[in-house]
Amino acid sequence: MLDREREPVGLRVLPGGGVEQSPVEWWRATAAACRRLAARADGDTPAAVAVTAQWAGTVPVGADGEALSDALIWMDARGAPFVRRAAGGPIRVAGYGPLRLARWLRRTGGAPALSGRDPFGHILWLRHQRPEVYDAAAVLLEPADWLGLCLTGRAATTAVTATLHWLTNTRDLHRIRYDDGLLRAAAVDAAKLPELLPTNTVLGPLAPNAAEALGLAAGVPVVAGTPDTMSAAVGAGAVADGAAHLYVGTSSWLSCHVDFKRTDPQHGIASLPSALPGRYLVSDEQETAGASLEKLSALVGAEIPELLAEAAAVPAGAGGVLFTPWLNGERTPVDDHLVRGGWLNIGLDTTRAQLARATLEGVALNLRWMRGPVERFARRRLDPLAFVGGGARSELWCQIMADVLDREVRQIADPIDANVRGGALLAGSRWTRSPSTTFPAASLWRASIGRGRTPARPTTPCSPRSAACTSPRVACTGG
After folding, report:
1. Where are the beta strands (DSSP E) in 44-103?
2. Across 413-437, average pLDDT
3. pLDDT tens digits for 112-164?
4. Cis amide bond preceding 333, omega within 30
């Protein structure tokens, strides 16, 4: 990574489970950050522009290419009642009508989240609750595809990015396409879906107006966007089948590449088409991981580095304080958008430092709850874990993860930039033309892991009985 810039964007939490962001603000932030980078580049022209972004969001775009409203992002659950109606039936299995579930599993490898937190739910919500926006929309785009439109003027998506619409037939990884039967069953207007391209396709040249906004030369190739889950796996170096990575950012997940297509609807886990050609990536998610620490920071009026320093001085178990990190519902291993979390066993003598320690341990214990179903799904023990995302910057959290998960945890160098690194490496592969079995930068990722800090190994692992996180006597870590 030669250089980097960041620009914050806002978030709107609305009544009834709505969570939105401004696509216009995304573009302005992207342009501002890129201009600062370009100013330091001494006139060097990039070989390509790559995009990676949050997944499972929806931007309604008008015929003029402008966003018609704020984007519904992956945390937005307002589509839940409409998904349950579309997915259900007189008899239900895990909340789905058996025949409808079988059709989705057979064709897509998964099914719409009953919580409504994916483009399938967003589109249904727009159609029923914002019909004026839905009718005016010329195309409905994922966040990465919206940025691609801003960069090139072309509205398109990739076979990987479109997966969470649950409207594509993924049975043949080399010929993924929209499925007419699924479109009819969902009553989704196919004309409102973007052009479907192969993964890592060049979307087009950087448009002159976009080039001016970014401070770059027009005509630079722009590679179609990649979802953050997929790019993080690549940026973590977890490219071999079974090589696992642990991500803690706003949300969290535990994943690895596999060579099989499989779905576990009961626990919200599926192997979905990967950004690596001909491969699948285990897909799961827990809603609020790093967001839990951010919430505590806002509640107590302390910066996150200060909270981490205080938590490091608290013994394992946080003085009996427990934290359940379900601040916006949960997805895996239970899909429930209504469940809520909090801090438990708080007494008059509870300190801010104990709340911080309990938050770190609660996120780790929640991941332990998910670890069992994920490992059974992947048919292997996931060990070691390459740890990426903002949470991986904390040595304390790294050790807590190792102890609670009872796995070796490797802090990857520059963990917060794993998504960007992965997106760049995937874009670079577009020009190497190497076969997927010898993906061109695999040696770089192994080296990247080697340059990470000393692996954190379990010191006081939790016993299986403590994984339910019900006892104030749980010893989560010796770190």
Report:
1. 49-53, 59-61, 71-72
2. 77
3. 989 999 999 999 999 999 999 999 999 999 999 999 999 999 999 999 999 99
4. yes
389, 416 Cβ separation under 8 angstroms: yes
Pairing assessment for the beta strands 12-14 and 18-21 based on DSSP bridges: antiparallel
What CA–CA distance (Å, rounded) separates 223 from 96?
Answer: 37
pTM: 0.84
Instruction: Tell me the two tokens of residue 84.
Output: 């349950």
Neighbours of 463 (CB within 10 A): 9
Cα 328 to Cα 20, 119, 453, distances in angstroms: 14, 18, 32
Number of residues assigned to the chain: 479
Give the model confidence (pLDDT) of 10-60 as tens digits. Answer: 999 999 999 999 999 999 999 999 999 999 988 788 889 999 999 999 999
What does the DSSP assignment read for 333-361? SS-BSS---EEES--TT--HHHHHHHHHH
Domains of the chain by range and CATH? 12-227 (3.30.420.40), 236-412+452-479 (3.30.420.40)
The residue to which tokens 């580095």 are assigned = 305
Q: Which two tokens stand for residue 292?
A: 């839990």
Distance of CA 355 to the CA centre of its chain: 26
Sequence-ordered strand ranges (E) for 81-220: 139-141, 156-158, 168-169, 177-178, 195-197, 202-205
Give dist(CA 257, CA 243) in Å, integer.
Answer: 7
Q: Do residues 102 and 93 touch, judged by C-beta distance below 8 A?
A: no
